């Protein structure tokens, strides 16, 4: 499935939301230091925003990255015949200097 503008927008919003979550967490820690309170945990709204943002970014990146390939190499090789596997086009050279040694060669 190709990446659409919607997927790119979701990824962008997710990244901005993650940055906002990090800023909110830093601001919360700063507030606790100023008021001389002990840090126990982040507020639940910051945790939820971070988790939702993470899933938004993961969803968007899955579509932007494109189709996944199988990890096992056997899956790609199952559809090819033996002739296709042994075909090495980089060694198929038809214009070489051997023809200049032929008695029928004329420039």
Automatic annotation (TrEMBL):
A single MF term (Gene Ontology): inorganic cation transmembrane transporter activity
UniProt keyword Membrane, yes or no: yes
Main location: endoplasmic reticulum
Protein's UniProt keywords contain Iron-sulfur: no
Subcellular location: Endoplasmic reticulum membrane; Golgi apparatus membrane; Early endosome membrane
InterPro entries in the record: MMgT
Keywords linked to the UniProt accession: Endoplasmic reticulum, Endosome, Golgi apparatus, Magnesium, Membrane, Transmembrane, Transmembrane helix, Transport
Pfam family, one: MMgT
One annotated Gene Ontology cellular component of this protein: Golgi membrane
Annotated TM spans: 40-62
Lipid bilayer topology: Multi-pass membrane protein
Record family assignment: Belongs to the membrane magnesium transporter (TC 1.A.67) family.
Subunit note: Component of the ER membrane protein complex (EMC).
Function (record text): Part of the endoplasmic reticulum membrane protein complex (EMC) that enables the energy-independent insertion into endoplasmic reticulum membranes of newly synthesized membrane proteins. May be involved in Mg(2+) transport.
Protein's name according to its UniProt entry: Membrane magnesium transporter
Organism this protein belongs to: Ceratina calcarata
């Amino acid at each position: 499935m190709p990446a659409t503008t919607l997927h790119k927008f979701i990824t962008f919003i997710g990244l901005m939301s993650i940055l906002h979550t990090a800023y909110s967490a830093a601001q919360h820690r700063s507030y606790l230091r100023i008021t001389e309170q002990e840090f126990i945990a982040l507020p639940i709204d910051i945790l939820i925003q971070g988790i939702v943002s993470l899933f938004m970014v993961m969803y968007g990146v899955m579509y932007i990255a494109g189709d996944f390939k199988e990890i096992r190499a056997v899956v790609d090789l199952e559809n090819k015949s033996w002739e296709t596997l042994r075909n090495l086009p980089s060694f198929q050279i038809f214009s070489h200097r051997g023809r200049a040694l032929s008695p029928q060669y004329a420039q």
